[in-house]
């Protein structure tokens, strides 16, 4: 019994799909509803992965610094180095912890992907490998019936059954022998009998020769005639019921490829591919990939071109339109989830670590870079000026004193000119003149003692 992706698809995805189609008979809306249900169910796992990645991005610089210090300190003691590394991992967390939720999601996402690639959204191919042998060689081989792995086929809206392709005579044919490809359910009921119960369903299989067309003759009803010995690969295709149905701007949910072999461009598929790439780019911006200060430039370039490469891949490896719609919706949901989680506050211990790192960076930023001519004693330069500077200061002081004395002398002269007639010189006059001269000198000295703006400016310039 299959307990892998096929089991999840048949027992989880298809019942949910049938439930929503029963509510609203639209396979496009059923795809949207199924995608949202699965994404909300996986929300805790994806949220844990996003939080872990965000946490590691914040602590990575400090973590790498400590790891390097441990390597340098205990380079001669591997046991101690491993012990200290374990402590660092315990403190900051394992960088691979964010991958664990992704691993739990992968089987479910693969099953959802496989569901949307199958019936009823796209055609279902069955591959059959034939071996044509000479008659005398085939007589020694016991013939055994050949069946392909079963695949779920929708025979009507909401009705599906596991169907296999069957070769009653086996996959080994003798030259000239004829056989026919039949389809039946795992219970042994033929597909034609099942289709007779739903006469409104038009489900006609198609047959193709993938390789070895010169060795067989294949008719439209699935009859095979062996012509010459060799290996042959046949492909029988059952069409999906919803493959030709549209949804919103999508013409056909089952259409594969943006460009037909005849050059016709399907703009609905091109639009979904472009939108898928844009959502990838926005998701990268929100998650902050490649924006770290110590990020590798080569890694930044890879992050920038990844959305282009990943979305452009669908032009060369096409997928059905329904699958592209699922991937676009899922990516938009992921982008919205990343935006919401990026607004959450960091854990308290991580926040303290971030604040300490920011303070350390700010303290480094306040230190000025080296400048030629600067020395450690440069702040004391004003207190101990150079010889040339002293001479300039003294000259400016002398000039300032002379200008002040000149300004003060006219006052004394004017005071002396007030006398009407010159009087004969006497001892009293001499003493009076000496006292006047003395007062004039004192006034000049007092003026010199007052600091002038010119003097202060010259000292500052020096």
TrEMBL record:
KW Membrane (keyword) present: yes
Biological classification of the source: Bacteria, Bacillati, Cyanobacteriota, Cyanophyceae, Leptolyngbyales
Subcellular location: Cell inner membrane; Membrane
Top-rank taxon: Bacteria
GO BP terms in the entry: protein insertion into membrane; protein transport
Stretches with biased composition (Basic and acidic residues): 373-419, 429-440
Membrane topology: Multi-pass membrane protein
Protein name (Swiss-Prot/TrEMBL): Membrane protein insertase YidC
Disordered: annotated segments: 357-462
Family: Belongs to the OXA1/ALB3/YidC family.
Domain Membrane insertase YidC/Oxa/ALB C-terminal: 27-342
GO cellular component, as recorded: plasma membrane
Transmembrane segments: 20-45, 95-116, 264-286, 307-329
Keyword set, alphabetical order: Cell membrane, Chaperone, Membrane, Protein transport, Transmembrane, Transmembrane helix, Transport
Organism from which the protein derives: Stenomitos frigidus ULC18
MF annotations from Gene Ontology: membrane insertase activity
